[in-house]
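cron nightly-structures :: item 1 of 1
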Amino acid sequence: MTELENNAKTLLLWFNKNYVKTNPDKCHLFVPKHTEGIPIKIDKEIIKGKSTVELWGLNLDRKLNFNEHVLNLFKNAS
């Protein structure tokens, strides 16, 4: 088990103790400045790393650039 999986497990335990509902099947793994494809296991779900992720309507890549977001804005505007 990786350190990232251990941290996720600790977080899930805290959520359960404090009656916070979790949804591992809706989780995304986004590690800035790291290669894509680092899978981790949270509960029974395997979550694969992504090179881009959408957070609150913003698209970010792993270098924390907004290039993907700006390109999507241009596509939607035209």
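cron nightly-structures :: done
The chain has a mean pLDDT of 78.
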